[in-house]
Structure formats: C-alpha cells, structure tokens
Amino acid sequence: MKTTGNNTEAEPVARVEPATGAEQSLATRIAARAGGGAMRVFLILVALFWLMPTIGLLLSSLRGAQDIAATGWWKVFTAPSELTFDNYQRLLDNSTITGSLFSTVMITVPSTFLVVVIGSLAGYAFAWMEFPGRDWWFLVVVGLLVVPVQVALIPVSELFGTIGIFETTFGVIMFHTAFGLPFAIFLLRNFFAEIPRELLEAARLDGAGEIRLFTRVVMPLGGPAIASLGIFQFLWVWNDMLVALIFADSESPPITVALQQQVRQFGNNIDVLAPGAFVSMVIPLAVFFAFQRQFVSGVMAGAVK
C-alpha cells in the first residue's frame, strides 16, 4: 500500500490463476475424468465380466444334459432353440433338492432373526446402559471376532453330542447364532453410540423406560445398520457349507450340502445341478436387492459417522 499526501492507493492484489491441465496432478486429472463416458463404459464391462459366471450358470440351467456335454453355454446365442425349462421341472421333482431348500430356509431365517434381535439388545446395552464391567465385557466381544470357526468345530461337536443336539437343525441354528453375535454386537454398539444423547434424554424426560426407548427411538434410528447386519448374516448362513456339513442332519441337509452330495453320487447329473445351483444363488441375491436401499444407507451412515 502506497501513501501520497492524504491519498492512500491500494496495491493491486495478484490473482491466483487456476492450474492448467499440464500443472494438475495425475490423480486430479483421473478424478476429473472418472465420471466421463469412457469410465462408465469401462465399469459396465467390468460388471459384465464379473457377472459372466452367473450368466453362464443361468444359460446352462436352461439347456439339456446332452447339449451341456457337447458345447459351451455360449452356443445358445447361435442356437436359442436349445433353451428349455425341463431342467427346472426335474428340479421340482427331485425331493432331495426341494427338501434341502426348505431346510436351508428353516436354518437361515431363525439364525438371522436371533442374531439381529440379540445383537440389537446387546448393542444398546453396551452403548447406553451402565453395568459393572461393561467395557471389559465389550473387549471380550471384540476379542471373539478373531476366533475362527474351524477352531470351535471339535469342541462344539462334543458339546452338542453331549446335550443331544448334534446333527439337528437346532444345533446348526445355535452355532450360526453364536458366531454371528460378536460381529452383530460390535457393529450395532458402535452405530447406537452415535445417536445424540440429547434425543435419548428427552425421551426419558417424557417418561420412556429402557424398553420403550429401545423400541421407539433406537430401533427406528438404527434401521439401516440392522438391515445391513441382517443381509450379512443371511448371506453367510445361506451360503455356508462347512458348518452344515458337520452339524446338520444328514437326512435333511441344506442346499449347499445337498448339491455337494448330488455331485458325489451323480457326477453327470448336470441337468439337475445347474438349476439347483442357480436357485440357491438367486435367492440371496433377491434378498440383497430387496434391501439394498437400507444396506447402502447403513454403510453410508457408518462412513459419515
């Protein structure tokens, strides 16, 4: 700033010119072009490549056994007359596969429900209730997250055999529930802890007890996280084979074990295995897409918090 007599002249302020394309970093240029048409085409190609096994399984399930043995599934694009629903009719006539689907539902639904309910109650208790040793008990829960399933197979088998629930549907449900709870409690406790304390205190001033506070305030706010947990648990139990192979009833096995037995007993029974594998895969996909909005909301809420 220059002063001349009674006049004060301000020096011009230098303007900062935006960085040119050559001066921008490589990461900045990539990020700027990420939303372009070329990137979208690339992502679509990646998605198609990722879905290729699913598409191949679907088309194989719609072809006859002789056609599957003779050529690859891509042959249907030049010979669409090979497509038929006879395989799915044989699948419905196969009592082993249909019974295994029912057994899988009877295992998956209770396992998911129990984990969601018990995990929600425990998560709320660890987040907002005071009791002796709360932090130490939560550390125990966190420590259980690193315990692999394989470590517990032998001792749990002996325990289930002693109390008489080995090779029963109830035993499989208990195993999945026990190993799903540590992650459920950890996830929901951290989510519930981010609820504003003022909101809970206002509800208490209005006369709400712990049960009403949990059902009317915490549960609606924790809906996205609970939905995400339910999806994870459902997919894990539905696709499980190791636990089902050891603890499930051999007379009514889940779908994963039933398909494995079909491969072992009827190695060329591809006209039943292909539609059975596709049905076992499409059901959890349908569950995921049905709750994808809640799943994304839960993930984004956790990321923001």
What is the helix fraction of residues, given as a range?
over 70%
- Spatial order of the strands forming the largest sheet: 1-2
Quote the distance from N terminus to C terminus.
47 Å
- Described by the principal axes of the CA atoms, the overall outline is globular
As a percent range, the share of strand residues is under 5%
Number of strands: 2
- Unreliable segments (pLDDT under 50, ≥5 consecutive)? 301-305
Mean pLDDT: 81
Class by SSE composition: mainly alpha
Count of helical regions: 15
Largest sheet: 2 strands, antiparallel
Q: From the alpha-carbon coordinates, what is the Rg to the nearest angstrom? A: 28 Å
- Helix/strand order, N-terminal first: EEHHHHHHHHHHHHHHH
Structure description:
This protein is an all-alpha fold and about 300 residues long. Helices cover about 70% and strands about 0% of the residues. The protein contains 15 helices and two strands. The chain has helices spanning about 25-35, 35-60, 65-70, 85-95, 95-130, 135-145, 150-165, 170-190, 195-205, 210-220, 225-240, 240-245, 255-265, 270-290, 290-305; strands at about 1-5, 5-10. It has a two-stranded antiparallel ribbon. A hairpin with a 2-residue loop joins strand 1 (about 1-5) and strand 2 (about 5-10). Helix 5 (about 95-130) runs antiparallel to helix 13 (about 255-265), helix 6 (about 135-145) crosses helix 8 (about 170-190) and helix 8 runs antiparallel to helix 11. The protein is globular, with a radius of gyration of 28 Å. Residues about 300-305 have low confidence and may be disordered.
